[in-house]
Amino acid sequence: MEYLIDTHVFIWALMDTKKIPKKTFEILEDENNTVYISSMSFWEIAIKVQSKKLELHGINVLQLPHIAKQLNFTILDPQTYDYVSISQIPLKENHHDPFDRMLIQQAIRNDLVLISKDEKFQQYEENGLQLMW
User: Fold this and answer.
1) Residue 4 phi, psi (nearest 5)
2) Handedness of CA 83, 118, 76, 34 (dihedral sign)
3) By the 8 A CB rule, do 33 and 27 touch?
4) Which of 90, 92, 95, 129 could in theory staple to 120 by disulfide, Cβ–Cβ 3.0 to 4.6 A?
5) Which helix (H) or strand (E) holds 38?
6) 6: closest CA among 94, 133, 109?
7) Is there a contact between 74 and 35 (Cβ–Cβ < 8 Å)?
8) Is 24 exposed, middle or buried (0-12, 13-18, 19+ CB in 10 A)?
9) Which residues of 83-118 are buried (b: 16+ CB within 10 A; e: fewer)?
10) Is 7 exposed, middle or buried (0-12, 13-18, 19+ CB in 10 A)?
11) pLDDT at 113
12) What pLDDT does 91 receive?
């Protein structure tokens, strides 16, 4: 199967795997699965590190793409159509995060199961999002 991980899943895979449920962790480690991380997640992490909202405890943000590859994650770059077609996902009253919306759009457009703990994502299942945690 093919999966796209939310930013927090990547951070936990780096720093605190105990936060990832066993079933989800097994999916991440199964070599028969393709697990993607969006390059948008690296941008989000870099912004949070710079603004001091996130501490990587000695991990250099510039090494994150390399570390992702070491963890056997495949980097998924948004395509031009991902940016413009994001307007096809309805804005939800309680959810406007542009990073989340891009991950949702990438998952829908690429027919990927999005792995996220974020309960707000459930409201996009009616728009074709496949979600698991």
Assistant:
1) -125, 130
2) negative
3) yes
4) 95
5) strand 34-38
6) 133
7) yes
8) buried
9) eeebeebeeeeeeeeebbbbbbbbbbbeebbbbbeb
10) buried
11) 98
12) 85
Q: What is the sign of the dihedral through the CA atoms of 59, 47, 79 and 34?
A: positive
Structure tokens at 4: 């796209």
User: pLDDT at position 93, please?
Assistant: 81
Inter-CA distances, 34 with 71, 125, 127, Å: 11, 21, 23
Give Cα 74 to chain centroid, integer Å. Answer: 11
Residue at token pair 């074709």 = 128
